[in-house]
């Protein structure tokens, strides 16, 4: 038995969706082993990592001076190199139950309009986190595979992947991307819009965790069947004391309107730029929505109204990208075909 085949017994290939909001890790043969927020809490005095992922998210906006909660990814790409590397190393170690000698092959999903420098940064981070080989694939492509779309056929598939930092829109045919656009407007932008709206309307300051909850509970892209309300707490700007107010789904829809319009327009532009033969396929097959941002209530309805096309939601929108990248671990031919160099 050669060393190589002995090594492959312990093969520990991973697929990673390194997202702005969440990082998912898929281990070959095991499925998704890590799904946590992309946040690291660091002690500024000692430089030690206090918490990663879910625990660090609990600390957002609540840390004392010597601890900072950092989100190392911005708009789908690495903003803080060192912290990303530490975070990756932590998640990879966690995926292998703490075994440190493992050197996995890793497939990582990246936004489609990523620059050479940004690609380099992702690869370097993974190599420093002890990867033996690193393959980058476009998130939209991974999402299409994860959503079970027949991407290797000669017909048009359109996928809209709305994440935390970026919205990736792609038209795919014959395992290649015919048109792709990544706009840096997605879930985080929605959270920010809610914060600004509540500040402007009620003079109330809320944190990003609260605004994310509001988005999840009340946010919508198209009028809902029944009215929803929610009590929120924050700090009043003028009086300077904590306050509770009640908001409605209508207000939140209004606050999100601009962000949603940007996404809808990008989908429209993508449809305009698609070659006619593939457009015909998309009319039959429709658009597949995926990514955490696609969970916004009635977003599928809104796109249906605006484009007149059928719109379907992927089965498990939050993990489509990582599942797609995971499928590529088992299909090396496909991976070679579609990985970015």
Task: Describe the model.
- Helix content is 40%, strand content 27%.
- It has 341 residues and is of the alpha+beta class.
- It folds into three domains: 3-141 and 321-338, Nucleotidyltransferase, domain 5; 154-185 and 257-314, 2-Layer Sandwich (Nucleotidyltransferase, domain 5); 187-255, Alpha-Beta Complex (Actin, Chain A, domain 4), CATH 3.90.640.10.
- The protein has a five-stranded mixed β-sheet with strand order 3-2-1-9-10, sandwiched between helices. Strands 13-12-11-17-18 form a five-stranded mixed β-sheet, sandwiched between helices.
- Helix 3 (81-95) crosses helix 4 (116-128) and helix 5 (139-146) crosses helix 11.
- The protein is flat.
- The two termini are 32 Å apart.
List strands and helices in order, with pairings:
Layout: H1 3-9, E1 14-18, E2 22-27, E3 31-37, E4 40-43, E5 49-52, H2 54-59, E6 67-70, E7 73-74, E8 77-78, H3 81-95, E9 105-110, H4 116-128, E10 133-138, H5 139-146, E11 157-162, E12 167-173, E13 176-183, H6 187-202, E14 204-205, H7 208-218, E15 229-236, E16 242-248, H8 249-273, H9 276-285, E17 287-290, H10 299-307, E18 311-313, H11 320-330, H12 332-338
Parallel strand pairs: 1-9, 9-10, 11-17, 17-18
Antiparallel strand pairs: 1-2, 2-3, 4-5, 4-6, 7-8, 11-12, 12-13, 14-15, 15-16
Helix pairs in contact: 3-4, 5-11, 6-7, 6-8
